[in-house]
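Worked example 3 (structure in, sequence out).
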């Protein structure tokens, strides 16, 4: 069994090309951007005054927005792994969409 595992690992190491390494870096950078999108979404649901009420809805909105971003990230990752979408586009699209939505909602809340 150990020889079989070593053969799989060495075989997969031989198939990695420069293009895949570039995609790997793009995916790692996209993860950092997705974290920033999560912070923006958290800011949009937490930067309301408590005196306006609706704290429960605010908490539910934050949980829902985080769940939606998680699902979109996983679906995009699966599409990229299946080869239906370019892997770097699949990695970056949830981060970019999450940031755009976060900025839009945040600006709408602040400026009305």
């Amino acid at each position: 069994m150990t020889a079989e595992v070593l053969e799989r690992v060495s075989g997969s190491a031989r198939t990695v090309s420069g293009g895949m390494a570039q995609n790997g870096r793009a995916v790692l950078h996209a993860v950092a951007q997705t974290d920033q999108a999560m912070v923006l979404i958290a800011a949009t649901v937490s930067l309301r005054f408590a005196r306006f009420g609706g704290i429960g809805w605010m908490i539910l909105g934050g949980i829902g927005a985080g769940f939606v971003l998680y699902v979109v990230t996983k679906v995009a990752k699966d599409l990229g792994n299946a080869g239906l979408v370019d892997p770097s586009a699949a990695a970056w699209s949830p981060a970019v969409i999450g940031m755009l939505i976060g900025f839009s909602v945040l600006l709408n809340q602040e400026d009305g």
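Notes: Residues 18-111 form one domain. The chain has four helices and no strands.
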